[in-house]
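Q: I'm writing up a methods section and want to include an example of the input and output format. Could you take the sequence below and give the corresponding predicted structure tokens, formatted cleanly so I can copy it straight into the document?
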Amino acid sequence: MAVVVLAAVAFVVVQLVRPVPAVAATGATAVTTLPGSPAPLAWPSQGQAAIGVEGAGVLAQHGTAPAPLASVTKLMTAYLVLHDHPLAKTATGPSVTITATDVTTYQSDLAQGDSVVAVTAGEQLDERQLLEGLLIPSGDNIAALLAAWDAGSEPAFVAKMNATARRLGLRDTHYADASGVTPKTVSTAAAQVRLAMDDMTMPAFRAIVGMTQATLPVAGTVYNVDALLGTDGIIGVKTGYTPQAGGCFVFAAVTKVGGRTRTVVGAVLGQQSTPSQPSVLTAAFDASTALLTSAEPSLEQETVVRAGAVLGHLRAPWASTVALRATRTVTLTGLAGTRVRTVVDLPASVTPPVAGGRHLGSALVELGGQEVRVPLASGGPLPGASLSWRLTDL
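A: Here is the clean output for your methods example:
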């Protein structure tokens, strides 16, 4: 009898000290697509292009090699000036006095055939007027003036441009001047779409690029080089041309996506003249219109994850399976047929007990350049192994 008792005690001790099986946290990578059939985008036959939606980022691109930017460079010039000297939507900002050096720059640029805005020594231009001269008629001399005003010299300003490009994650982007006259200033269409989206978040910038003309003290009435402004929903943004860069155009257009008003932003770089289209800038406008027209019908806004959706599980042999549920809804914008990928990231080990509603891991939802991380929570409690289970688990 004593032997039986000792054996029973030994069995209980062994059962109680043996390791309890780990709680298994599982979740699978899921791949779906946005509804609708993918339609081919009207990419230009030369140069490169990219298109995206504000709030969603770049959705598609064609060509990735760094290329000269011409006056599209002024998107960064304006970004830095407004970042360093914020301006409300209708504010004028501080005044700047035109110097003899500014006049010399104007005369030199004019002699070289650059795009310029006339200035005279002693003239007073406020920050808003300078930005109008930079962005509407695309004054190269105004870019140099603003660079010196902001950073003390154009080389110092260019250093800030490159540091800002790195901070914003604008890959394959290098600035060599503030105006884009030099072909050493290069970037990609995708990077310029991203930069234009950042620019358009600033009310003063958005208002200025939407102006068809402006009146300056000496230059008088200056007109927007953007010939598409006001057509096809286009509200900006910036043109560019040099012989090395060809025709360039970064555009923003208001459209409807999923019943909501959204702003589509695109860029076309490196357009050259052809026998049927001798104007490189018109070629850039034509390519931009074709790209926008082809993209708009394919834009979809879709809820890809709903709050409460089961994206994983907790499993333990002593309890019922507990669902891991998304804690928020994710709605994304993209092109029809685009792949949506959901990757579940769970802890390597989970120690019971687990209370209901406890956050455990997350899911990363990816669509193009969009990434949204969704915390996961247990849909119910998972108790620790009971004494009776530990004694009876063989």
